[in-house]
Design goal:
By secondary structure, the protein is α/β, with parallel strands linked by helices. The longest helix has 21 residues.
Length: 400
């Protein structure tokens, strides 16, 4: 089977990194097209040996994007097209049908009750999505919560399949030596209790709640904020205003794993500085500061986002053996409580996080082993489930 994955962009994000993991684990000949922003994940896919094409789309209404994508699909002689993220789902489904490919699968990675991919839902957005959805064979939801949202939107239930996001559990396995090395690279005090937060720095992720909570906690509590985005300067100003700029480290975007061994990257900086906090003259490598290394340096992960489609950062933290405080995480809520005993739901305000973090800090460290929830969401399991959907989509076309 030959498949083409069409995605809106390939910057460092949950859906983008999920695509890279899936392509690695699917027993299918895969190519990838990104409509915009090739970004670091495109580099990673290329390093993995995957052919990546940048369509060069200019905005939502680029008149030449659709025919360009149609020609690419037709020329590639693909058996199946798999689309990811809203814009790619709309353009990709239409282009696939125009190119003569009827086996079309789409994954809905980031659909909330009031937003899609961080943008407000409107009747027009919904209507366009539903019109294009009819051109596909199946729509994949990353959690039962997203599946229910799709049904409420009007997507017919029989067309919805649930394939949870998957992680490489072994990559996040806790390593005490890596923890010590990473904390030294970051310049963290020996007695620092590190609250981690991972995700795009956007208003919807509500990381400001954690920055404000930090101001109510002892000076030994630090915050490690992993991600990039438009709210970074806002968060830096908040940290300055509440007096915790010297205890907040911004790492920028970090992949799940490096694209190339020993590729140099910029060191993490505190919110009050533009230089390294480590004192290193050479700077850490991507191997030193990929996401698994950073989770090893944390003592707890906090996720204040009130509207998640899955909660990938929470599952990755659980795989690293971290306790977790979260406001919204369908990945945890869809499982029995015993599957993730170290995951605790909080109300979401500053006061609730202050109380919960104080309690977790007082309890001290627990065992850093991955619970059943982390193993439930293995990437191998997700890839196997997706192959069943691919097979059904292609067989459905041949029998139609």
């Amino acid at each position: 089977m030959k498949a083409l994955h069409v995605i809106t962009g390939l910057g460092v994000g949950g859906a983008e990194q999920q695509l890279r993991l899936l392509v690695r684990n699917l027993p299918v000949d895969c190519d990838v097209v990104t409509l915009t922003n090739p970004g670091p994940v495109a580099e990673g896919l290329t390093a993995d040996g995957v052919r990546v094409t940048h369509l060069g789309m200019r905005g939502n209404r680029d008149p030449v994007a659709l025919p360009r994508l149609v020609r690419l699909i037709r020329g590639g002689r693909y058996d199946l097209v798999h689309t990811h993220l809203y814009r790619a789902c709309v353009y990709g489904r239409v282009a696939a049908r125009l190119a003569g490919v009827r086996a079309v699968v789409a994954t809905e990675h980031s659909l909330g009750d009031s937003q899609v991919e961080g943008r407000r839902l409107t009747p027009g957005v919904r209507a366009l999505y539903l019109a294009s959805e009819r051109l596909g064979r199946a729509t994949v939801a990353v959690s039962p919560t997203v599946a229910e949202r799709l049904r409420r939107w009007g997507v017919p239930g029989p067309r919805i399949e649930v394939v949870p996001n998957g992680i490489d559990v072994a990559r996040f396995r806790f390593d005490p030596a890596r923890r010590e090395r990473t904390r030294r690279r970051l310049g963290l005090p020996q007695d620092a209790y590190v609250v981690g937060a991972v995700g795009r720095l956007t208003a919807g992720k509500r990381f400001e709640v954690l920055v404000r909570a930090l101001a109510e906690l002892p000076d030994t509590v630090w915050m490690l904020l992993v991600g990039g985005g438009p709210e970074e300067n806002v968060l830096r100003r908040v940290a300055q205003r509440v007096g915790v700029a010297d205890r907040v480290l911004f790492t920028g975007e970090r992949p799940n794993e490096p694209n190339r061994p020993n590729a140099p990257t910029q060191p993490a900086t505190s919110s009050g500085s533009t230089g390294s906090t480590t004192g290193s003259t050479t700077g850490p490598t991507s191997t030193d500061l990929d996401l698994p290394a950073l989770t090893s340096a944390m003592d707890i992960l906090a996720s204040p986002s009130a509207e998640e489609a899955f909660g990938l950062a929470v599952v990755e933290a659980l795989a690293a053996g971290l306790p977790v405080l979260y406001v919204s995480c369908p990945a945890v809520d869809d499982l029995p409580q015993a599957a993730a005993p170290a995951a605790r739901r909080v109300q979401g305000g500053v006061d609730s996080f202050v109380r919960a973090l104080r309690q977790a800090h007082a309890q001290g460290p627990g065992p850093r082993s991955a619970p059943d929830a982390a193993h439930h969401y293995s990437i191998a399991r997700s890839a196997d489930r997706l192959m069943d959907i691919y097979t059904a989509a292609t067989l459905g076309v041949s029998s139609a």
